[in-house]
Structures are given as structure tokens and as C-alpha cells.
């Protein structure tokens, strides 16, 4: 049985990176530009795909741990601020929606669902990406990792949506790609399905025991 049960959902929450869009190449580009400025060696796109998905600060931490062996606060702060400045200036050069995403969003919008993007990425670049890809039209709100003090896997962003839109938890579905999404949904008490193609820190998403895995959101519409 499909966990999605789309007919009973009024509020559908979506993760951004690795779920709606493939943004790894732009993150890889901005990180290597930042490392170059700091006269540090570059990293590969394959490594970046493993490190992203838990927010910019942890991304920078993973890079430094790999390159330097330790994370010193001053160097971490320098890399983070440099990276955010470069990335936020141009977050959508090679970023594209994953296959099936636009069709699913159009269907959900036409069905009168309320769609919210819930991401650990700061709101400014998240909104820039959705604007650039003409996806903003589908979303009522984009809640970034900088709106509240807590972010996924903390359930704060998800619980805010339940309260703000005054829906029962049975009417809410989260669609994500990582253990962060699964954990946040579990703690919030809402259903969650994950896509098989996303970024899950180099681990098999099945190991996180999600309620359901789909390879293409269009499969939920049949």
C-alpha cells in the first residue's frame, strides 16, 4: 500500500536539494571557488554529493575535516562566509529539477493542495533557485534553515507548518531524500516518503527504514 495517500493530504512538504532539484554541481563549483580563495586544495563533485544535505555549516565542516584533518573555528567561519557569499550570488547555473518533479507539482497545485518547500538551505538561495527554475508559483511558502533556531532533523519546521495551516497531521505528507527528512517527520508525527535518487550522505536511504521509497514522483499519480 502506498503511504502517499494523496487524496487525503491537504499539505505536502518538500525538501529541496536532492528531492526537487539536483543542485550538487553548483554547490561543488562554489565550494571549490571558496577553497581556491583560501589557498586550499579542491574537492571532487562525487565528494560534494556525499557531504551536502545537512546545511552549509556542516558541509564546510566535512570539507575541512577531509582537507585539513580538523575543524578550527576561525577557518570554518572563513570558509562558511566565503562559500555563502559566492553560492548565494549565483545558486542556479547548472541546478535543474529532477525528472517528474514539475509534473507532480502541477498536478498537486491543480488538485488544490498547499505545497511548502522545507529545506535546511538558507531561504535566500532556496528562493532564488525556485524563482530561476520557475517553480515558485507552486509553493505557498519556502521555509529555509535560517528561519528558526532548529532545522531538520529537528521537527520544528514541520510542526510550524501543521500549526500555521491548521491541518491534522493525517493530512500532511513530507517528501524528502535523506535520513534528516525521515527523522524530522518521525519526530513530528507525520508521514514521509523519500526519493531514491537524492543525497543521503553516501548512505543507502533504505538503511534509514523510510515508510516508502519512490524513484519518480509521477509513480504516485497512477
Architecture overview:
There is one protein chain. The protein is an alpha/beta fold. The chain folds into 2 domains: 6-22 and 95-221, 3-Layer(aba) Sandwich (Rossmann fold); 24-89, Putative phosphatase, domain 2 (DNA polymerase, domain 1). The protein is 41% helix and 13% strand. It has 8 helices and 8 strands; from the N terminus they run ββααααβαβαβαβαββ. The chain has helices at residues 24-37, 45-51, 56-68, 73-89, 101-110, 123-132, 156-164, 179-188; strands at residues 11-14, 21-22, 96-97, 114-118, 141-143, 172-176, 191-195, 213-214. It has a 6-stranded parallel sheet, with helices on both faces. A two-stranded antiparallel ribbon has the order 2-3. Helix 1 crosses helix 4 and helix 3 (56-68) packs across helix 4. The chain is globular, with a radius of gyration of 17 Å. The model has no long low-confidence stretch (mean pLDDT 96).
Amino acid at each position: 500500500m502506498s503511504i502517499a495517500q494523496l487524496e487525503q493530504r491537504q499539505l505536502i512538504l518538500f525538501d529541496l536539494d536532492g528531492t526537487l532539484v539536483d543542485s550538487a554541481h553548483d554547490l561543488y563549483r562554489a565550494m571549490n571557488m571558496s577553497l581556491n580563495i583560501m589557498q586550499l586544495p579542491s574537492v571532487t563533485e562525487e565528494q560534494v554529493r556525499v557531504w551536502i544535505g545537512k546545511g552549509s555549516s556542516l558541509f564546510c565542516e566535512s570539507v575541512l575535516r577531509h582537507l585539513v584533518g580538523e575543524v578550527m573555528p576561525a577557518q570554518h567561519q572563513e570558509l562558511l562566509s566565503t562559500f555563502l557569499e559566492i553560492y548565494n550570488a549565483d545558486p542556479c547555473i547548472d541546478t535543474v529539477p529532477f525528472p517528474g518533479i514539475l509534473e507532480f507539482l502541477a498536478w498537486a497545485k491543480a488538485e488544490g493542495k498547499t505545497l511548502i518547500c522545507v529545506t535546511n538551505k538558507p531561504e535566500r538561495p532556496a528562493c532564488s533557485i525556485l524563482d530561476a527554475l520557475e517553480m515558485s508559483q507552486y509553493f505557498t511558502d519556502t521555509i529555509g534553515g535560517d528561519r528558526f533556531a532548529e532545522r531538520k532533523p529537528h521537527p520544528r519546521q514541520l510542526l510550524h507548518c501543521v500549526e500555521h495551516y491548521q491541518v491534522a497531521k493525517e493530512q500532511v505528507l513530507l517528501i524528502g531524500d535523506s535520513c534528516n527528512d525521515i527523522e524530522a517527520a518521525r519526530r513530528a508525527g507525520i508521514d514521509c516518503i523519500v526519493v531514491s535518487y537524492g543525497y543521503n550522505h553516501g548512505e543507502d536511504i533504505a538503511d534509514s527504514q523510510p515508510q516508502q521509497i519512490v524513484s519518480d514522483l509521477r509513480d504516485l499519480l497512477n
